[in-house]
Amino acid sequence: MSMNNHATAHYKIIADSGGSRYRFFCDLSGMALCTTEPVRGDTQQQELKMAWETEGKKHFNRCAKCGRWVSDPMFNADMLQCVDCAPWQEKPNYCIHCGKEISGTDRFCDACGTRLRYREVAV
Ligand SMILES: [Zn+2]
Ligand SMILES: [Zn+2]
C-alpha cells in the first residue's frame, strides 16, 4: 500500500512554561481542532504521542482509505473515509447497515432504524 504514515494529524508546537502544547489541524480543511494541555517528555516524539493519545485523537476521524485525520464535517461516516476519498452522495440508495433499498425521503432506514447520513441538497 502506498498509504503515508499518518501517525497523527498535522500539528504545531506551542512552547509553554509547563512543556509544549500541541495544536492539531484537520488534514483536509486545515482547521485547528484542538490545542492540548502542556505535555513534557524526554523526546519530542514522546511528547507528540502523549498529546495525541490523551487529547488530540478524540477530535479526529481517520480515513480508512488515505489514512488522513479529519474533522467531523470532513468525514463521511457512512464510508469511514474522508470526503476527499468518499464525497457525500446526495442520497444513498441502500441502507449502509442492512442493505435495504431506501425509498421516499426517510432519514432513517425503516428496516433497521439506521440514521441515513447524507448531505442535504436544496432542491
Ligand atoms: Zn481519505
Ligand atoms: Zn437498514
Structural class: alpha+beta
Q: Tell me the series of helices and strands, N- to C-terminal.
A: EEEHEEEE
Count of the separate structural domains: 2
- Residues in helix, %: 10-25%
Radius of gyration (CA) equals: 18 Å
**Based on the structure, what is the oligomeric state of the protein chains?**
single chain
Distance between the termini: 40 Å
Average of per-residue pLDDT values: 87
- Overall geometry comes to elongated
Give the strand order of the largest sheet, numbering strands 1, 2, ... along the chain: 1-2-3
Chemical compounds bound to the protein: zinc ion
How many separate helices?
1
Poorly predicted residue ranges: none
Main beta-sheet annotation = 3 strands, antiparallel
How many strands in all? 7
Strand content: 15-25%
Give an overview of the whole structure:
The N and C termini lie far apart (40 Å). The protein has a three-stranded antiparallel β-sheet, covered by helices on one side. It has a two-stranded antiparallel sheet with strand order 4-5. The chain has a two-stranded antiparallel ribbon with strand order 6-7. It folds into two domains: 10-82, no CATH class; 88-123, no CATH class. Helices cover 11% and strands 21% of the residues. It has one helix at residues 44-56, and strands spanning 10-16, 19-25, 32-35, 61-62, 69-70, 75-76, 81-82. The mean pLDDT is 87. β1 (10-16) and β2 (19-25) form a beta hairpin. The protein is α+β, with helices and mostly antiparallel strands and 123 residues long. The chain contains one helix and seven strands; from the N terminus they run βββαββββ. The structure holds zinc ion (2 copies).
